[in-house]
Every structure is written in C-alpha cells, then in structure tokens.
Design a protein that fits this description.
With 679 residues, the protein is mostly beta strands. It has a single domain, classed as Maltoporin, Chain A, CATH 2.40.170. It has six helices and 35 strands. The strands form four sheets. The chain has a 22-stranded antiparallel beta barrel. A six-stranded mixed beta sheet has the order 1-2-8-9-6-7. The protein has a three-stranded antiparallel beta sheet with strand order 3-4-5. A hairpin with a 6-residue loop joins strand 15 and strand 16. It is globular. The protein starts with a helix and ends in a 6-residue tail after the last strand. The relative contact order is 0.13. The N terminus is likely disordered.
C-alpha cells in the first residue's frame, strides 16, 4: 500500500479533484523574492481590511510564532477559534467557531472543500502548518459557490505555491516528549516560458515515548507516526488558459489508551489512509479574461480502521465533487457567477460495541447526494460600498428543493472605518458517529438516531465594525467589534447521561431551541517599530435542548476566551521574541460529571491560563528557534472517567474541556534556499 501511494503521488495526471483557488480562476500570483520576504515580515495575525466578509488572516509569520506542527496548533493566537481534543485517547482534535462544533465550519484548501466526513476528526492533524503560507478565518455565512455547509464560518488554507521561487525549504523540530516533525517543500518552475510549475510537499512526524503525567495508566498523547505527501501542478498559457491538478496522500497509525504491559489493557488503535486528487480547468471566453468558465472535479477516498477497547469501528468513504462555473466581470462594478455542482458521498460503517454483558453490531451503507444550482451577484462602488447577493438551490437525495439565500454588505463611510454585515441559511447532512467520534471512547449505551443522516438547517447573521486608528499609515493599529448569532431549525443533538448517550434531532424535542450568540473585541497596535501587540476577547452564550429540558447552557463550551500576543523583532529581524497568553473561561459540564467529581460541584469548570513563548534567531538562509508551550503546566484533572475499570459500564474518555499535555519545550530549525537568476 505504501509503495502504491508513493507511486500515485507522482502520477498526478491519473487523478481528478477539487475547487477554485482563492487566488481566483485566473491571475496566479507570481511571487518574487521581495514579495515572499514582505509576507514573512507582516503581522502574524490581522483583520483584513479589503475582504467583503469579516476575515482574520494568520500569515506565514503567524504560523512561525509557536511550534505549530499542524493546523490544529495554529489557532493559539486566535480568540475566534477554539481547538480542543475530541477525547483523551485518540489524539483527534476539534475546533469551535461561534460557539458551535467545527463540523459547522466549512474547511477549504485553496477554496476546495476538505475535511468532510471521515476526514474531519483527524483532519486538523493531517495538515502541516509549514505547508501553508496563510490561513483565513471568515465568520458567518460565506459564498454559495462551494455549497452551503459554511453554517458558522469558513476556514481557508493557502498552501505554498508552484510559482514560489523556493527550490528547497526544510523545517525540523523536536519536543521534550520526543515528538519529532520534519517538513520539506520544493517549488520548481520547469520551463523558461513559465508555463509549467510544480510544488512537492512532504511531511513525517512520530511520537517515540510513552507520556502519562497524571499516572492514570493512560497515554496523554497516542504513540505512532503520520506520513503525508502532496504534489501540485500549474499549467499557465499566455492566452489565459489555466490547468491546476494535484494529488495528496496520508498514512497515519496511532496507538493510545492504557500503556502496554497492563493485563488486558483498554487501547485505542487508529489506522487512517486517505488519497485525494483534483483538477481544475479555467478557459477564457474573451481577450481580457473578464468572462470565463471553469470546470472542477475532486475525488477522495478514506479508509479508517479503528479499534476502541479491542472492538472495531471500520469505515470507508468515497466522495466526488463536480463544480461548473461561469463568471462575468466585464463590467467594472458588476460581477456575476453562475454554476452547477454535485457532491456525492458513499459511506460504509461497521461498528461493534460491548456494554456490560450486552453486545451490539451495526453495519450501515449510506449514499448522500447534493445537486445544486447557484447564482451570485457582486456590486462594488469603488472601495466605498459592496454588496454580494447569493441564492442557491439544492436537491438533497433528489428530494424537495431547498433554497439558501445569503447577503453580504460592506460600507466604508471613511477610510478609517469599515462596517460589515452578512446573513443567510446553511445546510448539511449529519453524520452522527463521525461528527461525535469521542463517543466510541466510552462503554456507554448509544441510543436513538446515531445511524441516521438528517439534514441540519440553520440561519446565521451578524456584523462587524473595524476602526483603524490614525496613528500611522500601516493600518496596524485598529479596534474591532463583531456580533454573530446562529439559530438552528434542525440539528442532531447528542445528550450524555450517567450510563447512556442519546442521539436525537432538534425537531423531536417540543419547544427545543438551539442557538448561539457570540461577541468579540479585537485590538492591534505597533507602539514602536518592531514591537506589535494583539489583544482579543470573546464571549459566547450557547444553548441547546436536552432530553429533560427544552433549552440549557450548552455543555462543554467555554463562555469566554482572551488572548494577548506580544512580538518584538530587532533590526532586520535578526532576533524575534514571541509571547502569547490566553485565559480560557469556564464551561458547563454534563450533570453526571457533577456527581462523580467534586471538581465540578457547582456544575462548572474553573478558568485557566495558558502561556507560550518562543525565541528565533535568523541567519542568512536559515532560522533556529526554541520555545515552550503550556508554561503554566496546567492540565485537565482526571480527564478519563472510570479509568480504574475501563471495561466496565460508565468508562468515559470523551468529556474533555482542557489541555491533556503539560509543559512542553521544543527546538527547531528552518532552512530556505532561494532561486538564483542565471547570469
């Protein structure tokens, strides 16, 4: 299998794949050495002034502020996104945006939908941050071009480009717990005319040591390794014709749970394999490319072989996405996009569970299909006002038509003030077991509709005001406030009790209400050259129905988060000092947790701080850096309920609200070889 994967990665012409890049169907950026250096020296995190929707950008510099071995570790400087563990044994990570789970955030890889279905639980771990040049976090509903699964927001990843003039980039790091990472990237321009270019991306990581800081007999972080490889191509013809295609693969093997050597241990073993390919063709319809067409195809395959307490959850996913678009930008102020798309998913799930003396078997085969047609109109009045009006119609499984309207407005009454508002409908198929993979790390009964796939339905609305303070011309000093609310019409809800986990839909609860309200403040400044300050704070009120109450505070969702980031760079960035502090607010716990641990006597967790620091020394062509994570050494107390007898009813490793790993120190090196011109 490994040999076949490696061969496949270098035969991209055999594979088809996904959606338009954020660089646009046309106009691939031609990076120069100066442009790349400027990007690296920019603010690590900032709010984009030019975007129509409220967007936080994490730049390449921001991705270097901490260890950031993968995408899951790239949001520590952001209060918008909260990242936590799905459970205490598998290493699966999950994000929250606007108080809702990451399954309601549409993940994009250069504007192509990724991390869907089986790829979601571990997908954040499978994207090395050193493969990326930026991340954009957009709040609220966004464009309908890639579907309407962006119910609370959209996170787009920009990878290193084939046109980057960097023949070789190498990054390696190691932590004091012996976790090691290696990343290699190579961008090559293959002909003097600049028509063909490619980028090869490789990654390997491994955990070599057992870590059990709280002596409960369970590994804090699973052992094992992950290997991934990607190859992306660009063909650009002076006529305007563009062809982009590529392929990527992941091999991941993890072993968690009780340490080896224990008699009949409870273990969690994960073997994940995925292969993805894409092709996109953009064809100009007139001389200046103001009218064009694009065809996009994506194919994805995921094989998951997992065992929880020795019992299997074996799953397969095959997905195909096709998108056909027509764009007209011939009028300066009026842009039109029309299109047709189809998303098809096939799932096979085999589940074996044992609770007490009861054994359960579930084998399901599911086909989910979404056929959609969409239209989007954009009006720009120079830089002062813009409006994006979108309408999409979807036939889910060939059933009735579902219409999803969306509206985005932006107004700049004067240069220092930007006002935004947006709202609309979001829809997605629920995949209950995959969306809540942590329930498999329990010995509780699963009840209700966990093997169904209801269509979840929500409305999200909100706005943002950003004031750029007139202290300098760099726009680095700003004050921003935003509010977003989400209201679910239909939702799959998961309710924990002492010995059972219930799955049910929102519509089955009389008077049930699921909603979130989210307020955030952001402040950024550069008091003097080389020193930047970023301060953000977020408050969330999330509510959902439970089997015994129509609306309660949503369990395991933190009420607030505050982040302070300080960075100082000496002249020419020879030394860079980074410090990040975050305060994570309390969350309401499940009722059964209150009865089992005096830590939750009042039904709430305690607020806790996290500190990060890093020092980077830059030389010509390479950087050396050292740092530390979780300097307060705070970890969630007793994260595994019933760890003393994991084979008995009531064992639960899924109720996670805080860090599982304590203080970690690390060191690393980054080396860059720039392209030189021929003399």
């Amino acid at each position: 299998m490994k040999r076949l994967l490696l061969i496949s990665l270098f035969i991209p012409t055999l594979c088809l794949a996904q959606v338009p890049d954020t660089t646009g169907i046309y106009g691939e950026r031609k990076d120069t050495l100066d442009a790349s250096v400027f990007t690296a020296r920019g603010n690590g995190n900032f709010l984009s002034k030019g975007k129509d929707i409220r967007t936080e950008v994490i730049t390449a510099a921001g991705l270097c502020k901490m260890a950031c071995c993968n995408l899951a570790e790239s949001f520590e400087n952001s209060a918008s996104v909260t990242v936590g563990y799905s459970d205490a044994v598998t290493g699966a990570r999950q994000i929250r945006l606007l108080g809702q789970s990451g399954i309601y955030v549409q993940m994009l890889d250069e504007n192509r939908p990724v991390m869907r279905g089986l790829a979601a639980p571990w997908g954040l771990n499978y994207v090395p941050s050193q493969w990326l040049e930026s991340i954009q976090v957009a709040k609220g509903v966004t464009s309908v071009i890639n579907g309407v699964e962006s119910m609370t927001g959209q996170i787009n990843m920009e990878h290193r480009k084939p046109t980057d003039e960097i023949p070789l980039y190498v990054q390696a790091s190691v932590m004091n717990d012996t976790k090691a990472d290696l990343n290699i990237a190579s961008s090559l321009q293959l002909d003097e005319m600049g028509k063909w270019s490619t980028v090869i991306l490789a990654h390997a990581d491994h955990n070599f040591m057992d870590m059990d800081h709280n002596d409960d007999g369970f590994l804090d972080d699973p052992r094992g390794g992950m290997y991934s490889l990607a190859n992306r191509w660009l063909y650009y013809d002076p006529s305007g014709l563009q062809v982009r295609f590529g392929v990527s693969g992941v091999l991941d093997n993890k072993h968690g749970g009780q340490k080896s050597g224990i008699y009949d241990p409870w273990t969690a073993d994960i073997a994940n394999k995925s292969l993805d390919g894409y092709v996109k063709v953009g064809v100009p319809l007139n001389e200046d490319n103001s009218r064009n067409m694009a065809a996009v195809v994506d194919l994805n395959a995921v094989n998951l072989d997992s065992y929880f307490g020795g019992l299997p959850y074996l799953a397969r996913q095959r997905s195909a996405f096709v998108n056909l678009l027509y764009q007209d930008q011939s009028l300066e102020a009026h842009h039109f996009t029309l299109g047709l798309s189809n998303m098809f998913d096939w799932y096979s799930e085999e589940l074996r569970r044992r609770v007490g003396l009861d054994n359960f078997w579930d084998d399901t085969y599911t086909q989910l299909n979404d056929l959609g047609a969409f239209a989007e109109y954009t009006f720009h009045a120079e830089d002062k006002f813009s409006a994006i009006v979108s309408l999409r119609g979807d036939w889910y499984g060939g059933a009735n038509l579902h219409l999803s309207p969306r509206l985005t407005l932006k107004w700049v009454p004067w240069d220092q003030l930007v006002l935004r508002a947006n709202g609309g409908r979001g829809l997605r198929y629920s995949t209950p077991l995959i969306d809540n993979i942590g329930v498999l790390s329990t010995t509780k009964y699963l009840r209700g509709e966990y093997n169904t796939h209801p269509l979840e339905d929500s409305w999200t609305f909100g706005g943002n005001a950003t004031w750029y303070l007139p202290f300098d011309d760099s726009q680095k000093t700003y004050l921003s406030i935003d509010y977003f609310g989400t209201r679910f019409v239909e939702q799959m809800v998961v309710d924990y009790t002492a010995s059972e986990i219930f799955f049910y839909t929102l519509s089955s609860i009389q008077g049930g209400r699921s909603s979130t309200d989210n307020i955030q403040l952001d402040f950024g400044a550069e008091p003097f050259r080389g020193f930047t300050v970023t301060l953000t704070g977020r408050y969330t009120d999330a509510r959902q129905p439970l089997t015994h109450q129509s609306s309660v505070i949503k369990p395991m969702t933190d009420r607030y988060k505050a982040v302070l980031n300080l960075q100082y760079a000496t002249n020419l960035n020879k030394w860079i000092f980074d410090f990040t502090a975050s305060l994570n607010g309390p969350c309401h716990v499940w009722d059964f947790m209150c009865d089992m641990d005096p830590e939750y006597a009042d039904g709430w967790t305690k607020p806790y701080p996290l500190l990060y620091a890093q020092v980077t020394k830059r030389f010509k062509g390479f950087d050396i850096y050292v740092g530390g994570e979780n300097l307060t050494n705070f970890t969630q107390p007793n994260p595994i309920i019933g760890w003393e007898a994991p084979l008995q009813t009531g064992f639960d490793a899924s109720c996670i609200w805080g860090p599982l790993m304590g203080l970690r120190l690390y060191g690393g090196v980054r080396m860059t070889i720039w392209k030189t011109e021929k003399i």
